[in-house]
Amino acid sequence: MKKFINDPADVVVEALQGVALAHPDRLRVDLERQLVLRVGGPVPGKVGLLSGGGAGHEPLHSGFVGPGMLDAACCGQVFTSPVPDQILAAAIAVDAGAGVLQIVKNYTGDVLNFEMAAELAEGEGVRVRTVLVADDVAVEDSLFTAGRRGVGATVLVEKIVGAAAEDGLDLDACTALGEQVAGASRSMGIALGSCTVPAAGRPTVDLGPDEIEIGVGIHGEPGRRRQALAPARELAAQLVEPVVEDLELRRGERALVFLNGLGGTPQLELYLMFHEVHRQLKERGVDVVRSLVGSFLTSLDMAGCSLTLLRPDEPMLRWWDAPVDTPALRW
Amino acid sequence: MKKFINDPADVVVEALQGVALAHPDRLRVDLERQLVLRVGGPVPGKVGLLSGGGAGHEPLHSGFVGPGMLDAACCGQVFTSPVPDQILAAAIAVDAGAGVLQIVKNYTGDVLNFEMAAELAEGEGVRVRTVLVADDVAVEDSLFTAGRRGVGATVLVEKIVGAAAEDGLDLDACTALGEQVAGASRSMGIALGSCTVPAAGRPTVDLGPDEIEIGVGIHGEPGRRRQALAPARELAAQLVEPVVEDLELRRGERALVFLNGLGGTPQLELYLMFHEVHRQLKERGVDVVRSLVGSFLTSLDMAGCSLTLLRPDEPMLRWWDAPVDTPALRW
């Protein structure tokens, strides 16, 4: 394993020290609790938006803290859920009287810990709602998950609900919107190579020199099948087809397309894949009305990409277009 | 080699098709000439800012086209200079009567082709000046370069001169500013793993399982030495020391720090390295007044990072802070 680390046990806290030093005007970092908070928050009267999960998926979630997106992110250790006490501290920190919405990726550890934190927060007088994201169509149950895994749609939920919360929507309306966005999104990924977790020291997935994993999870969980490497147009088809079919996206409909890099894949390849995806959607009569291309939900150094499609309605598009000002997403 | 490509010969043009589809409101892509142009340009009375080079370093340069930065980027094939005809077409396209400034990384092919393009453009009545960036302190001459290689400082020159051009500085003033920024910047990089050029199909550099290259070039050119992997704090010291010494940065001085990922290194590790660099600069009495952390000048899928330090004056800081609105850099 070759990585820029000191002790594997200190990776997350040392990276958070870097985050604090790089973004002092935007982010406040609580190193002890591994929380990243919006400077100047909480915003009076605004629903507090909170997410989090295991580290190793950066910029998700800490890079999405700021006006128009999250109020706080809780960081667990690499690929490990944050604990209830952390999440509770974050919920209290971001509550400005309008309640707190937790955006949670569907992994059993995350679900349990966010649930427990919500109960504790309610005990402290903080109203908490949760949106669960479970958009990965690859497999039904997985290594760390009952039901579908939560992947790329998380970024879309955070952006769209983030804008709506900024616009003054109340807790119930933000929750309903988050559920709509999560419900209208589907994803699937492909790994060309494995990630390596620092504490493990060796690749998570044992892929042969010409072998790839179709439907991989963002921790290297098995997908639908392993197969030989194929040209980009065939790989794009193997993402477009299951995602479009599961979403039941019909000719004449519109889509927001998020083509995401998993960490080790260069931009050149991501844009090439986006071209393939775009062309294939057009052939199916699907109109790409918005797009996002880049490495926003990663799996450490995994070479690979994922495709997320959202069937947007007008309010979702308006909130997608609304200003956002975070380290990783800004317009 | 496992990559998202179809035919290695088509990688750049297919990626540019993706760029065009992803950014229709910001970028105009000339696929035949492999140019990426700012929508709505050229801006009357503004110096036209032009850069380019081999592909494989994205987001450099195409991701930096837009208000506050470049007017156009010329893309060669992977790790191959653009040809004079391409550059000439770009120069003519971005000239709005105030002349054109070319920002060129010091590689012999690039230097010759941009020089020839400048002569041709002058013949067409376009005034052209060139800023050469040669900031890599690792080695004096290299595989593709007489003199020092041009690396991370290119991003700083493009951002700072981009803002100054937007502010109305004339061609001579933009050229002088670009030379000042390039002259006040130094860089050095480390590779943990090799990149793989699609047309070659195998890793450029043959590094052992625990071996790294100190001072690597952005095409995998040899650096100062190979050595065993070491903790991040030691690797940071091996970048900080030569860069600070070559720049003759003294206790009490200020620095803009650019900690750059080379493509295959996750954000977690980049922020961890930034923390180390920041700490070591502080120990040396250097005040980090601005920073940029992320993968902005990459070497395809190379695992590694580079450090660039700039000794900024007040105007440079003002133009660094000025708004920029490109796909890859926006504030």
TrEMBL record, chains A, B:
UniProt entry tagged with the keyword Nucleotide-binding: yes
Record's protein name: Dihydroxyacetone kinase subunit DhaK
Domain DhaK, first and last residues per copy: 7-331
Top-level taxon of origin: Bacteria
Organism: Ornithinimicrobium pratense
Keywords: ATP-binding, Kinase, Nucleotide-binding, Transferase
The protein's Enzyme Commission number: 2.7.1.121
GO terms of molecular function: ATP binding; glycerone kinase activity; phosphoenolpyruvate-glycerone phosphotransferase activity
GO cellular component: cytosol
Gene giving rise to this polypeptide: dhaK
Ranges annotated as spanning the membrane: none
InterPro entries for this protein: DhaK_1, DhaK_dom, Dihydroxyacetone_Kinase
Any coiled-coil regions, as ranges: none
Any single biological process term in GO: glycerol catabolic process
